[in-house]
Write a structure and sequence with these properties.
Layout lengths: L12 E10 L3 H12 L4 E4 L8 H4 L4 E2 L12 H12 L5 H5 L6 E2 L2 H15 L2 E3 L3 E7 L5 E8 L2 E12 L5 H5 L4 E3 L13 E4 L3 H11 L2 H11 L9 E5 L5 E5 L10 H25 L7 E5 L9 E3 L7 H5 L7 E5 L3 E4 L11 E4 L7 E4 L11 E3 L8 H7 L2 H20 L10 H10 L13
Parallel strand pairs: 1-2, 1-8, 2-5, 8-19
Antiparallel strand pairs: 3-4, 6-7, 7-8, 9-14, 10-12, 10-13, 11-12, 15-18, 16-17
Helix pairs in contact: 1-5, 1-12, 3-12, 12-13
This protein binds flavin-adenine dinucleotide.
The site of flavin-adenine dinucleotide (FAD) has 40 residues, from helix 1, helix 2, strand 3, strand 6 and helix 12.
Length: 449
């Protein structure tokens, strides 16, 4: 029986750019905008027909905190997008979030529109509905081109610098680079099919919750009685207005988001779980009586897949000791937030959370964006080089914007300087430029002034 086929084809060149960004999530957005605003020609390739990554693809309903509970830590492009999103909110919500930068709700259609416009303003060339399926390697650790597939066929894309912002390190994987995945036993954080419920009565729900306790206490009871079949009692939700609310609730275990069969099972099981949850909310929670499932994620939300092996790997010790590095390009203050598929020793806790004190953060060095063995490739986003626990903190969208902004800025600076390796970058110049753009890389680094 034939178990494999050989298939060769000539690939016409579709485009060439200084910087090609693979993936349009927070990391890819930061990278594309930063590179283009610094004068590089940029092509951003995204498999969906819109930008935003998990916020729009999988309907993750809010941005984790931008602050360290005392001051903004994520600034620059990520902050600019947060402000634009707040500006686009409906009246009422807009007032509520005017001075808030932590846990801001994401209305996905507003975000898509904002991001399209920002790319156009910056002169980024967009290519949607296009999957990057392979990498053509050249000499000396260089990537020569990417292989892309879309409605127009299969073609190649060339660049001086590539940013892998696919969140699964697809480019590194296809090019045979080193990576890790999950814990020592291959365990990965569970996935979640996020969803939007419409036709809610927010005031009625809030009155109920203030009198009878928050939603999670009701979930806990329903879970214990067997009425609600969810892994644990945790649910995050954000109202977009009086009647529509985004939910990040319910886990599907055993899903490897870099495996198409698993993603398929996640889609089927995830949607089923959403309707089970919605049915329970409708029957049991005042304010939800008329709830309709308006939307589920186009893909189940994936918290964890590959982590590259970079020139530096950010560790749990770096996190707890709030370490700074001479080549810091961003800082992170978000807590360790590892969702588990089996409870901790107490038999109840399904999220491993470790917080830094208020006002504290740790640095992320440029070297964590550089996959070992590659000369012209950056990795930005949740697959950057970190140990598993620390990835459980740095994976969130605000920090991913910052990683992308650093990679894109470095790509543009290297283009101007005719560099040949990502390690050629002038770190002082990169840090100065990031600060000039409004990014924050810590008190020890010069601030714009
Ligand atoms: C259920 C869940 C809840 C979460 N909750 C929060 C939260 O409350 N707040 C928060 O800030 N963060 C949260 N996170 C984390 C956060 O959403 C992600 O870790 C973050 O979006 C990662 O950013 P990224 O840019 O690396 O990748 P992504 O956001 O995953 O974007 C990657 C993009 O690349 C595209 N892509 C991938 N491969 C290819 C390819 N081969 N060809 C073309 N395009 C490709 C994808 O379509 C996607 O648009 C949550 C995550 C999940 C899954």
């Amino acid at each position: 029986m034939t178990t494999s086929f050989s298939y060769q084809t000539e690939l016409p060149l579709y485009a060439e750019a200084d910087v090609v960004v693979a993936g349009g999530g927070p990391a890819g957005i930061g990278a594309a905008l930063a590179a283009a605003r610094n004068g590089a020609s940029v092509l951003l390739i995204e498999q969906r027909g819109f930008l935003g990554g998990m916020a729009t693809v999988s309907l993750v309903p809010s941005y984790t905190p931008y602050s360290d509970r005392e001051k903004p830590v994520i600034r620059g492009i990520g902050y600019e997008i947060l402000q634009a999103l707040k500006e686009a909110m409906q009246q009422g919500l807009k007032e509520k979030f005017r001075d808030v930068i932590d846990w801001v709700p994401i209305e996905p259609e507003n975000l898509k529109l904002i991001l399209d416009a920002k790319m156009q303003e910056a002169g980024v060339r967009l290519l949607y509905h296009t999957f990057i399926s392979d990498v053509i390697r050249g000499e000396g650790g260089r990537i020569d081109a990417l292989v892309i597939h879309n409605k127009s066929g299969s073609r190649a894309v060339k660049a001086k610098w590539f940013v892998d912002a696919t969140s699964d390190a697809d480019l590194v994987w296809r090019a045979g680079g080193a990576f890790q995945k999950g814990d020592d036993g291959g365990e990965l954080q569970p996935a979640t099919m996020c969803f939007v419920l419409s036709r809610l009565n927010r005031s009625r729900f809030e009155a109920f919750a203030s009198e009878h306790g928050p939603l999670h206490t009701h979930i806990e009871r329903a879970k214990e009685s067997g009425e609600l079949k969810v892994l644990h009692n945790w649910a995050a939700f954000s109202f977009y207005n009086e009647s529509d609310c985004g939910f990040n609730f319910g886990h599907v275990t055993g899903i490897d988001g870099s495996n198409a069969d698993d993603l398929t099972r996640g889609a089927v099981e995830g949607r089923k779980l959403v309707h089970h949850i919605a049915d329970w909310l409708r029957r049991r929670i005042p304010g939800f009586e008329q709830a309709v499932v308006a939307q589920t994620g186009e893909q189940i939300g994936i918290r964890e897949t590959r982590r590259i092996v970079g020139d530096y790997t950010v560790t749990f010790d770096d996190f707890t000791s709030c370490r700074s590095f001479p080549d810091d390009i961003a800082r992170n203050a978000y807590y360790i937030d590892v969702h588990l598929s089996k409870p901790l020793l107490d038999g109840k806790t399904y999220i491993d959370k470790i917080f830094l004190p208020p006002g504290k953060s740790h640095g992320i060095p440029y070297r964590a964006l550089l996959p070992v063995g590659f000369a012209n490739l950056f990795v930005a986003g949740r697959s950057i080089s970190a140990d598993r626990t620390t990835q459980g903190s740095m994976r969130v969208m605000p920090t991913c914007f910052a990683f992308g902004e650093a990679a894109g800025t470095a790509g543009a600076l290297l283009t101007q300087a005719n560099g040949t390796d990502t390690r050629d970058v002038d770190i002082d110049a990169l840090q100065r430029q990031l600060v000039k753009q409004g990014a924050w890389i810590g008190e020890d680094h010069l601030q714009e002034g």
